[in-house]
């Protein structure tokens, strides 16, 4: 199956489609097609001076605020710059023997497991089954490797 790649590359897509990137509504990358809310521009402008240095990579202040509000230990809080960054970290934490990915899906899952060269089993979702995951197929794969740790996306 020739699967499309993850979106968000409007220039490439517009060249392929022969149109202006502004004519495309891209729902693949969580980008608001309406642009910035009016209140955001002046706020960002007022914070330009804060952009001179990198922010705290450990998110110390934010973790403390989350701890204060929700009572979660700061050591148990994992923050990242978007879901893709966090997804890339999952295989390093899980240390699985193999991965199971239902396809088609977000291409970042396969990218994440490829970083550690984790063997991957793809479970293809079929159109005739409305792209629903066959739980029995998934169970059979997991049962066939009872002594191995699986990472399932």
Automatic annotation (TrEMBL):
Pfam families: Aminotran_1_2 (PF00155). Signal peptide: none annotated. It comes from the Bacteria. One of its GO terms (molecular function) is pyridoxal phosphate binding. InterPro entries: Aminotransferase_I/II_large (IPR004839), PyrdxlP-dep_Trfase (IPR015424), PyrdxlP-dep_Trfase_major (IPR015421), PyrdxlP-dep_Trfase_small (IPR015422). Its cofactor is pyridoxal 5'-phosphate. The keyword Transferase applies. Keywords: Aminotransferase, Pyridoxal phosphate, Transferase. Residues 23-150 form the Aminotransferase class I/classII large domain. This is Aminotransferase, class I/II domain protein. It comes from Leptospira interrogans str. 2006001854.
